[in-house]
Specification:
single chain; 5 strands; alpha+beta
C-alpha cells in the first residue's frame, strides 16, 4: 500500500482539500467538511466508538504532506501543480475554468475567461459603461 493512501478521507475517497482533521478516538484522517456532515455524530465512522460527539483535531502535518502531492488541473489545462496550489489555480488563474455571468437573469452558461469580457460587452454593455 502506498503510504499516501492513508491520507485519503474514507468518506469522499480523496485527499482533504482544505483542512485535514484526525479523530481523537482512532486518529483516522478526514476532510473536515466530510466529518462534519456525518449523519450520526455520536459514532465515529471508522471505529464506530460511541461518543457524546465525534471530536477531531487539525492534522497539520498531514495537510502539509497532502499540499505537496503533485496533481493535474481538473479542468484539463495541462498544468501539473502541487495540491496546495490547486484551489488558487482553479478559482483564479486556470484558463479553462468557467465564470458565471454576474447578471442573475442571464441565461448564458458559465463562460471561459477568454469569452467572459466579450459576453459582458455584447450582452450586458450597460454593466461596462
Amino acid at each position: 500500500m502506498d503510504v499516501l493512501e492513508l491520507f485519503k478521507c474514507p468518506l469522499c475517497l480523496d485527499y482533504p482539500a482544505a483542512r485535514a482533521v484526525s479523530t481523537t478516538c482512532c486518529h483516522q484522517i478526514y476532510c473536515q467538511p466530510c466529518l462534519l456532515s456525518i449523519p450520526s455524530p455520536h459514532y465515529c465512522p471508522s471505529c464506530r466508538s460511541h461518543q457524546r460527539k465525534v471530536e477531531s483535531v487539525e492534522a497539520v502535518a498531514v495537510q502539509r504532506a497532502i499540499d505537496r502531492i503533485d496533481t493535474f488541473c481538473p479542468f484539463d489545462c495541462g498544468l501539473q501543480l502541487k495540491r496546495g496550489n490547486l484551489t488558487e489555480h482553479t478559482k483564479n488563474t486556470c484558463p479553462k475554468r468557467t465564470i458565471p455571468c454576474p447578471c442573475p437573469s442571464c441565461p448564458s452558461p458559465p463562460l471561459l475567461p477568454s469569452d467572459f469580457v466579450k459576453h459582458l460587452a455584447s450582452a450586458h454593455s450597460e454593466i461596462l459603461a
